[in-house]
Each structure stands twice: as structure tokens, then as C-alpha cells.
Specification:
The structure holds two protein chains of two kinds.
Chain A (H helix, E strand, L loop, with lengths): L4 H12 L5 H10 L18 H13 L6 H11 L2 H4 L5 E12 L2 E10 L6 E6 L2 E6 L4 E3 L9 E13 L6 H30 L1 E2 L2 E2 L4 H35 L8 H26 L10 H13 L4 H13 L2 H20 L1
Parallel strand pairs in A: 1-3
Antiparallel strand pairs in A: 1-2, 2-6, 3-4, 4-6, 5-6, 7-8
Helix pairs in contact in A: 1-3, 3-6, 3-7, 4-6, 6-7, 6-8, 6-9, 7-8, 7-11, 8-9, 8-10
Chain B lengths: L19 H15 L4 H4 L5 H17 L18 H14 L8 H14 L2 H14 L3 E4 L15 E5 L2 E12 L6 E7 L11 E7 L5 E6 L8 E12 L3 E2 L5 H10 L4 H23 L8 H29 L5 H25 L21 H7 L1 H5 L4 H12 L5
Parallel strand pairs in B: 1-4
Antiparallel strand pairs in B: 2-3, 3-7, 4-5, 5-8, 6-7
The chains are: A alpha+beta, B alpha+beta.
Chain lengths: ~350, ~400
């Protein structure tokens, strides 16, 4: 565990809880250097590990912050310090791309780019290769998620694309922030629901004293804990993958990411239903904060792979091992990740 | 009572009562001739004014052929339409995907259900006529900030002073309160009553009376059909008391029962057609979600549940035709429907993928299966929470049907 984690989290907590507009908050995040979390201190980063990354992105989710902090942290780690010097740490991911790469130039459209309009560098997977594109030459078609966060399309014409090697698919790396954001938002919505249950008086007592309400909250807490656990494992695996890319061991973290995104997506259904049910009518209003969590949870669930997508990937990864080798496969993976984290 | 106005169009469904096949054909013919094919598009992203105008227009169309109040008895100026014919009417309306008269739900169901059983002849004459002939809009003033599931804890106070009750307090979650002419109001008249629910009275509140302030509540979906109603020294004439003083709790039960009956039948019929449309769209959708075994299972389960809830409703309608009390079955149906609607809209929001997560202009008055899936899903919490939360309904079933200890 990184020794500076608490310091970074305290800084982030002050920014996330500060209630600034998204634009201002994004500026504060960049000025605090948070996107450089994973870079070595020699390169101007915090020298943080992937456990730190999970905690920080989770904290943003806990405050229902819709900024692309996770993409920036992972993007800077992949692209290197040039992402900071040349692109002000404003790195985002495209969920999908249509178009062609011709002589290193991209012509086409990138879809599902969260915060594309305020970003400087976008990472995209085109024809099986992960590339970085300078957004300054792109035509932006703005869009909005159901949570009100920007999610845009970017059109490029013969834009120079620089290769950016990644240890797994960019799509899987894009799922990582969403897992941590879901983990945080589940805990945030749970905290609101518990607070409400303890305050709201009906039948002469707080509704939190009713067993039906208690059991609902316990089911939600269980789902939130599972996402946090699976999320930490996925981030650890991703860290191991990046450590080993340059060395002899080739490690693809897709298995852990698939399991964690699937678990997170499953948790959203039960978790949001319970949070709303416990809140009653008040949770249905825009004045109350719950919708800031639940609407984002629905969006994050759908982005970078729904349940069907990741269940199929996980199924394939599991089935190819066959019955005999599955256990050995699982233990070998977790041994390797544990060694990497040690 | 006045005669129904005879409609000049060739379709006059009420002329075919008794011949259910001809009645169905006349209803279908009239709907086809009347419902504008582009009404959904016109109400997508529409202003509140456009919505209000369209709801009033639709009510006038229904009224012109006697189909606004077909379920009211003839003695109160309705059509006295047999339940079997009401069922046909709703089936046809759902089949064509016509508009819902949602702004008039309290006017058409809750208010009459309350007055038929408990209103004075003068009240019935004034207020039933008001809806039937002038399309007056009613809202309901039951819940308060401190009294939701525990409704009998309500604190809005009504004190008798001469010929009026002076009312002070606050109501919340009143649908369409900003458009309403009148409100079904519960208020406490005897704070010293031994049991909380024995000191409550039931009033007709004129929403234009001095001291009434209405504030819309913006909801998670972006709509604002719910309102808060603030009552500051509002004077209600004594003749607007429904039933006896302090008998309001019993009377309120007849109001609440209204939203567990035919209303759900209309929603379930509409979902049946939505399910067919959704099925078609899913088979054509990129990625073919219905080829996924897990999603197929879930979709099929929802279909089975929809079939089950329709059968339950049919059973309830049959009980109603034989004059049997179906209050407890209605509670089961309300709970079952609320869960089904939430599960179905959740499934659709997930199966429609990223497209369903994008912000879209709201489609006003198109019901619970508007095709804007995430918005439909969010709206489904209206059923699992409003009119008795799922938890309250389960307690009711446990105590009153299963006889479990209180």
C-alpha cells in the first residue's frame, strides 16, 4: 500500500466535497495533480499503486462526481508524462470507433467519449490497435448521459494517431474506472439510505427499526461490499499487467476486470432499487441527492460493457480452461497478482 | 340528470351496449377516427401548456361520445356501462396506443369512488357534474411530509368556526396539483381522539380558495407533476365536509381502493402491447439481445408474470361483476403489478444498452411504457412507493389475508 494514499485521498475529498461546478472541479483535480497518481515521483507523479487508483476513483464515485478522473489516471499511466506536459492531463477514452487508420492517420468518428468536449487527448481502439489522438482537430458533437454528464462524439479527418501499447483491450481498461465509480456510488447511496432510515419517523419510530427496511439495507450493503472487493482485485490485476508488460511475464488482467464489471453491473439493479425504496417519495425528487448517485449508476453500468458482454467474456475465458485446469488457472493468476502487489 | 350528448360522428359506441362485438368495433372505429396518429411525437419534449391543452382536448373527445365517464352509474350521469364493456373499451384504447387521461385520474376514479359511497346528494350533483360536463380536475391531499406510510399521523388541522372549517398545514405528492380545481383533503378535526385515525375528517377543498399555495416538485425524471400544497388559514365551508366529522379515515379507504382496480387493468393491457413492440424491436436490434440465454429467460419470465397479473385482474373484474368485495385481491394485484412494472422496465433499460442511457426529451402523458426506457424505469418507482409502498402492501397481505399476528 502506498504511504501517501491518505494524503492524496484527503486532498481529493476536499475537492469532491467542495461542490464546485464540473468545469471548476476538473481544473482543481488537474491542479492537484491527481491524474498523475500512477506516475513515478521522478516523472512528476505521486508514485501511487493501483490500490491507490481504486481508492481515489472510488472516492469520486462516493461523491457522485461525473468527471473522467479514472480515464485520466489510467490514460496518463499508459501514455506517459507527455500526457501531462502536452495535454494538461485531460485524457479520455472512446468507447467505440468507426473509421479507418491509413498510414498512421485516423479518419472517422469516436463514440461515447465521456467529457470529450473538454479533453485534449483521446485513447481509442481502432482496427485492433490502441492509439492516442489530439482532440484539438476534432469536430465535437455534444451529447448528454441520463445523469446530465457530457458524453460526446468526436469526428476526425486524417488526424495523426500515435500508437499506445496496452496490456489488454482498451475496452477492458475503460471498464476499470466504471467499476471503481460504481463501488463508490453504491456506498454513497447506501450511506444516504441508512441516514434516511435512521432519521425518518413513521409509526412513532425511525423506519430503520423496521425489519423489512433493515433487511433491504443489509442486501444492499452486501452488494456494495462485493463490488468493492471485486474492484480492488481487478485494479490489482491491472497493476500486475502493467508491471509485467516490460518484463518477461505477460499478464492480461481481462479475467479479473470481466468478473468485477459483471459483479458491479449486477449490484446496480438491486442496490438502486433498495436505495429508492427505502427513501420513499423524497428519493424521487431532484432536490434530494439520491438521483445524483442512482442515475450515474445506471449510466456507468451500461458503459464499457453490460452484463451480457462481460458474462460472455468471462464464460469464454473460463470454458477454454476446461474442468481440469480451471482451479490451477485461478490460483496461478491470484498468486501472480499477490506477488506483484507484495 | 342530463342526457349524454349524442356525437355527430358515425361512431357512437354507447349505441351498441349489449352487443359486445358491435360495441368493440364502434370503439375501435371511433378511436381510429379520433386519435391523432402523431400525438406521441407532438408531446415529446412538449411544454406543460401543450400537455395541458392536449389532456383537456382528449377529455373533451371522450366526453363527446360518453366515454369519459362510462363507468359511472346512470343515476350520476355516467353511462352505467357494464364491466365487460369497460374492459373492451380499455382493451381497444391500449391496442391503438391512445393517450392516457392521466390528469383526470382522480376526477374519474378517486373522487367518484368517494362521493358515490359517502357524498351528500348536493355534493354529488355539484362535483360529479363538474367533472362530467366541464372536465374539472381533481387532486388528492393525503400525504404530508411527516405522514406517508403512516398516513394516520397527518397533522394538517381543520378547526370549525361557525359555518367554515379553518385549515392549516401542508400536503405533499399531490399529482397535478398545479392544474387542479379541487382537492380531496384529509385533515385532523379532533387531536384528542383516543386513536389517531379517529380524529380525521374528509373535505372538498377549492384549490382557488384564499391561503392555498401550490409548489411543483421537480422529479428525478425531470417532470414536475407532483406538488406540495400549503394551507394557510384556508376556509372550507361546512357543506364541503364529506360524511360525518371525524369519519374521514374510513371514507379514505374507499378512495384508495379506486387506484387498485381498473386503473391497473389499463396499465397491464398497455404493457401487453408494449411487450410485443419491444420484442419486435429487440429482434431487430444490433447485437440481438434476445439471442442471449440469460436475457431470454428474464424476458420470458416477465411475459409469464404479465400473463399472471392479467389473469388476476380478470378474476378481480369477475368478482366485481358479481358484486363481491375484491379489496384484498386488489392489494395483491397492486403489489404484483408494481414489481412487474419495475422489473420489466429495468430489463428493457438494460437490454436497450447505451442508447437507453442518453438524455432524451420527455414524452408526456404516454404512460408507463413510453419507449423511453430509463425514464419509464425511473417512473416505475411511483408504483412501488406511491399508494402504499411494497413493504406496506406485504404487511397488509400478511395480516389481512394470511392472518399473521400484527
Amino acid at each position: 500500500m502506498s504511504t501517501e494514499r491518505q494524503m492524496v485521498l484527503d486532498t481529493a475529498e476536499r475537492i469532491f466535497a467542495g461542490g464546485a461546478t464540473p468545469e471548476t472541479m476538473w481544473q482543481q483535480v488537474i491542479e492537484a495533480g491527481l491524474p498523475a497518481l500512477l506516475l513515478p515521483e521522478a516523472d512528476g507523479g505521486f508514485g501511487g499503486d493501483w490500490g491507490d487508483a481504486f481508492s481515489l476513483i472510488r472516492l469520486a464515485g462516493y461523491h457522485a462526481v461525473g468527471l473522467p478522473l479514472g480515464e485520466a489516471i489510467i490514460g496518463v499511466a499508459l501514455f506517459g508524462s507527455e500526457a501531462i506536459s502536452a495535454f494538461d492531463s485531460r485524457v479520455v477514452f472512446a468507447e467505440s470507433a468507426s473509421g479507418t487508420l491509413d498510414g498512421g492517420n485516423f479518419t472517422g468518428i469516436l463514440h461515447g467519449v465521456a467529457s470529450g468536449r473538454t479533453a485534449r487527448l483521446v485513447l481509442a481502439s481502432i482496427a485492433g490497435q490502441t492509439v492516442g489522438l489530439d482532440i484539438s482537430g476534432a469536430i465535437v458533437t455534444p451529447g448528454e448521459t441520463l445523469a446530465g454528464d457530457p458524453c460526446d462524439s468526436l469526428e476526425f479527418r486524417a488526424a495523426p494517431a500515435s500508437l499506445c501499447p496496452v496490456p489488454t483491450s482498451l475496452f477492458a481498461l475503460g471498464a476499470l474506472p466504471r467499476i471503481a465509480q460504481i463501488a463508490g456510488a453504491m456506498d454513497g447511496a447506501l450511506a444516504l439510505a441508512i441516514g434516511h432510515a435512521n432519521e425518518r419517523q413513521q409509526f412513532g419510530k425511525p423506519i430503520g427499526k423496521l425489519q423489512a427496511v433493515q433487511q433491504n439495507l443489509a442486501v444492499m450493503a452486501e452488494a456494495a461490499a462485493a463490488v468493492n472487493c471485486a474492484g480492488q482485485a481487478a485494479f490489482q490485476a491491472a497493476g500486475q499487467a502493467l508491471v509485467s508488460t516490460g518484463g518477461a511475464v505477460k499478464f492480461d488482467p481481462e479475467f479479473e476486470i470481466a468478473a468485477a464489471k459483471l459483479r458491479a453491473n449486477i449490484a446496480v439493479d438491486a442496490g438502486t432499487a433498495i436505495a429508492h425504496q427505502v427513501h420513499g417519495g423524497i428519493g424521487f425528487t431532484q432536490d434530494y441527492a439520491l438521483h445524483r448517485f442512482t442515475r450515474r449508476l445506471y449510466v456507468w453500468r451500461a458503459e464499457f460493457g453490460n452484463e451480457r458482454f462481460w458474462a460472455e467474456r468471462l464464460g469464454v475465458l473460463t470454458a477454454v480452461q476446461g474442468g481440469d485446469k480451471l482451479w490451477a488457472y485461478l490460483t496461478a493468476r491470484s498468486d501472480l497478482v499477490a506477488m506483484g502487489a507484495a | 340528470m342530463m342526457d349524454q350528448t349524442v356525437n355527430p360522428t358515425p361512431f357512437y359506441p354507447l349505441g351498441h351496449v349489449g352487443d359486445i362485438i358491435a360495441f368493440r368495433a364502434a370503439v375501435a372505429g371511433w378511436l381510429n377516427a379520433t386519435v391523432p396518429p402523431d400525438w406521441r411525437q407532438n408531446l415529446t419534449g412538449a411544454s406543460e401548456e401543450t400537455y395541458l391543452k392536449f389532456q383537456n382536448w382528449w377529455f373533451d373527445q371522450l366526453k363527446s361520445v360518453g366515454l369519459a365517464t362510462p363507468h359511472w352509474p346512470k343515476s350520476w350521469g355516467g353511462a352505467g356501462l357494464p364491466l365487460s364493456h369497460q374492459v373492451v373499451m380499455i382493451e381497444e384504447l391500449a391496442r391503438i396506443g391512445g393517450p392516457m387521461a392521466e390528469m383526470f385520474v382522480v376526477s374519474l376514479f378517486h373522487m367518484p369512488a368517494t362521493l358515490f359511497a359517502n357524498g351528500s346528494p348536493a355534493q354529488c350533483d355539484r362535483y360529479l357534474t363538474g367533472v362530467r360536463d366541464r372536465g374539472e380536475i381533481w387532486c388528492q391531499g393525503f400525504s404530508e411530509p411527516g405522514a406517508g406510510s403512516d398516513l394516520s399521523a397527518l397533522r394538517t388541522r381543520a378547526e370549525r368556526k361557525g359555518d367554515v372549517y379553518v385549515v392549516n398545514g401542508q400536503k405533499v405528492w399531490s399529482s397535478f396539483g398545479m392544474h387542479a380545481d379541487f382537492c380531496l383533503l384529509l385533515a385532523r378535526t379532533n387531536p384528542q381522539a383516543p386513536k389517531k385515525n379517529a380524529g380525521i375528517s374528509y373535505f372538498i377543498l377549492d384549490m382557488r380558495a384564499a391561503g392555498v399555495t401550490v409548489r411543483p416538485i421537480r422529479q428525478i425524471t425531470g417532470r414536475a407533476e407532483f406538488t406540495e400544497i400549503f394551507l394557510d388559514n384556508v376556509e372550507i365551508p361546512v357543506e364541503n365536509l364529506i360524511g360525518a366529522e371525524n369519519a374521514g379515515w374510513q371514507i379514505a379507504q374507499s378512495t384508495l381502493a379506486a387506484e387498485r382496480g381498473l386503473l391497473i387493468f389499463e396499465h397491464a393491457e398497455r404493457m401487453t402491447h408494449a411487450l410485443r413492440r419491444d420484442y419486435q424491436a429487440l429482434t431487430e436490434q444490433h447485437g440481438k439481445p434476445l439471442e442471449d440465454a440469460g436475457l431470454r429467460r428474464e424476458f420470458t419470465k416477465r411475459y409469464a408474470e404479465l400473463t399472471a397479473v392479467r389473469l388476476l385482474i380478470k378474476q378481480m373484474i369477475e368478482q366485481g361483476e358479481h358484486g363481491q368485495d375484491s379489496g384484498l385481491l386488489a392489494a395483491v394485484i397492486k403489489l404484483y403489478w408494481a414489481q412487474l412494472l419495475q422489473n420489466y422496465t429495468s430489463l428493457m433499460a438494460r437490454m436497450r444498452g447505451l442508447d437507453a442511457q442518453r438524455a432524451m426529451p420527455l414524452s408526456l402523458g404516454t404512460g408507463h411504457n413510453s419507449g423511453d426506457y430509463l425514464s419509464d424505469f425511473l417512473q416505475s418507482y411511483g408504483w412501488t412507493i406511491a399508494g402504499g409502498t411494497n413493504e406496506i402492501m406485504r404487511t397488509l397481505i400478511a395480516e389481512r389475508i394470511l392472518g399473521l399476528p400484527r
